[in-house]
Amino acid sequence: MRGFTVYPHVINRILFLISILDLLDIWYNKKNMTKEELWQAVLAQIQLGISQANFATWFKNTGVVSQEGNQVVVFVPNSFTKEWLENKYGKTIFKILHSLDEEVKEVKYTVGKTELKILKKAPTISLPEIGQLEFQEFKIDKETNLNPRYTFENFIVGPFNELPQAAGWAVSKNPGFVYNPLFIYGGVGLGKTHLLQAVGNEVIKNSSQKKVKYLPSEKFTAGVVSSIRSHEMEDFKAKYRAIDVLILDDVQFLAGKEKTQEEFFHTFNHLYEKNKQIILSSDRPPKAIPALSERLRSRFEGGMIADIGYPDYETRVAILKTKSQERKIDFPEEILNYIAVSIQRNIRELEGALNRLSAYQKLNNQAPNLETAKSLLKNLILSPAKLTTPKKIIQAVADFYDLKERDLISSSRKKEIVRPRQIAMYLLREDLKNSYPFIGRKLGGKDHTTAIHSYGKVSKELETSEALSDEISLIRQRIVSS
Ligand code: ADP
Ligand code: MG
Predict the structure, then answer these.
(1) How far apart are CA 425 and CA 421, in angstroms?
(2) DSSP 150-196
(3) Residue 156 C-alpha to ligand 1 middle, in angstroms?
(4) Residue 283: exposure state from Cβ atoms within 10 A (0-12, 13-18, ≥19)
(5) Between these two residues, 38 and 234, which has the higher pLDDT value?
(6) How far apart (Å, rounded) are the C-alpha atoms in residues 187 and 344?
(7) Number of the ligand closest to the Cα of 214
(8) Of all residues in the chain, what percent are helix, strand and coil, respectively (each to 5)?
(9) How buried is 467 (Cβ within 10 angstroms: 0-12 exposed, 13-18 middle, 19+ buried)?
């Protein structure tokens, strides 16, 4: 008996000694690191903590130019990246550098070029050269229907889409075995098609023999109709059943198409039973798709459902910066901020605004100033007064219930505060499609489960309480007129 009790103890000792040896090794090595190795070590740690797309976006073509005394100078490819690294990752970078070399007391960023191949230890990243995107011809693959333009590397991640992005990434690494089906939903122009196709492209990149097929639902419907007409249904069935990853975009268009739904139901079951991956998108959750057969709905709900919300201000700026970088145009900060404030709910429109401004730039050989930009974008942009922001919602709720904003974000459990807080959470979700973690953070660092609970509670009560419904419309009026 005694032997058994001692055994784990001994193992623990050995593990402890090994970890001490590791630490000594790291300590010894770091004293001998070249500046390239130092930066490699920083990147390796950063990569563990952020998404692949963000890593590729912000750390490609960065490196260390010099390390003298207690100052490390990091070079970055352009002023966008400089600002972003300083503000968003500055602290983390400093901490890691300092942990690797205690003498480091200061990190500076400088825009410059380098010959260093700093990403050699991160072979998974392959961002197309910045600037090439616009000029590169993107050919849609005939077999898969995938557009190579849509990748994870150029898919920007923020609080509004991090869950669907992570789920998509996981599926691409292990199709058929993690989330099946993966169901992504969200409004127009928010990246559903981009994400779905990125998964397809990533699967093929990892194993080229996998059969991936992407298609919009309307195309599936058209296929069913024409095979029925030409009596080729068997061929049609066989074709879809040989697929490893089937991606069906915009399934809300299956609504009311009974024959197509039936066909898809059988294809779905066939693929599912063989552990083949199914990925779906829609502009709404399965239960809100009208005229969808119950059995198909329950299939859609059987895997992972993740929604893409509206991007927050910071992410909108990041998207604009990255995309102007791709177009090789350095728009003044105030213009990008103006676009980010004015276009809140559609990434395609953010791109559209940039395209307009870059067309102007090409014709006139200079970037427009703010006034010109405003008039160029006039019909794209709503009047800012009508736009809702998280701040406006929180203020309006606080005002309405005669509270201070700081009461809402406090940790008070008093009934007269909890209730308005729940309503604020409900409005942030319902009107801005903010993610639950974001809502929790906005209301003073509450857990996302609190936000989920609040949204559910208020929605449920609204089904029966007319008083609450009136209350909420009054608050909404205040929001739009604030
Ligand atoms: P949806 O299918 O939801 O209507 P799309 O996937 O077609 O939206 O996206 C619209 C445009 O916005 C596309 O050009 C896409 O590349 C771009 N886009 C959307 N989300 C992102 C993102 N997270 N990062 C970079 N580009 C994005
Ligand atoms: Mg789409």
Answers:
(1) 6
(2) --STT----TTTHHHHHHHHHHHHSTTTSSSSEEEEE-TTSSHHHHH
(3) 9
(4) middle
(5) 234
(6) 12
(7) 2
(8) 60, 10, 30
(9) exposed
pLDDT recorded at residue 241: 93
Question: 345: CA distance to ligand 1 center in Å?
Answer: 11
Greatest mean pLDDT among 2-11, 137-146, 447-456 lies in: 447-456
HSE at residue 178, side-chain half, CA atoms within 13 A, is: 15
Residues with CB under 6 A from ligand 1: 154-156, 161, 186, 188-194, 319, 347-348, 351
For the CA of 156, the nearest ligand: 1
Tell me which of 349 and 10 has the higher pLDDT.
Answer: 349
Contacts of 311 (CB under 8 A, 6+ apart): 158, 160, 161, 190, 319, 344, 347
Which string of DSSP letters, residue by residue, matches 54-107?
HHHHHHTT-EEEEEETTEEEEEESSHHHHHHIIIIIHHHHHHHHHHH-TT--EE
Beta pairing, strands 245-249 & 277-282: parallel
What six digits make up the tokens of 199? 């998964």
**What pLDDT score was predicted for residue 472?**
87
Cα-based angle 338, 482, 309 (whole degrees, multiple of 5): 60
pTM here is 0.59
Q: Which two tokens stand for residue 215?
A: 């298609």
**Which residues, in sequence order, are bridge partners of residue 106?**
71
Tokens of 91: 């602290």
The tokens describing 367, both together, are: 């970037």
CB 344 within 8 A of CB 316: yes
- Asked if the model's pLDDT at residue 52 lies above 80, the reply is no
Query: For ligand 2, a single-atom ion, which residues have Cβ within 5 Å?
Result: 192-193
Q: Is the dihedral of CA 428, 429, 435, 440 positive or negative?
A: positive
Q: Which residue has a Cα nearest atom 14 of ligand 1? A: 348
Question: Would the pLDDT of 92 be above 90?
Answer: no
From the CA of 315, give the closest atom in ligand 1. Answer: 23
Q: Which of 37-46, 172-181, 192-201 has the weakest average pLDDT?
A: 37-46
Mutate to test the pocket of ligand 1, among 347, 350, 355 (most ligand atoms within 8 A of CB): 347
Report CA(196)–ligand 2 centroid distance (Å). Answer: 9
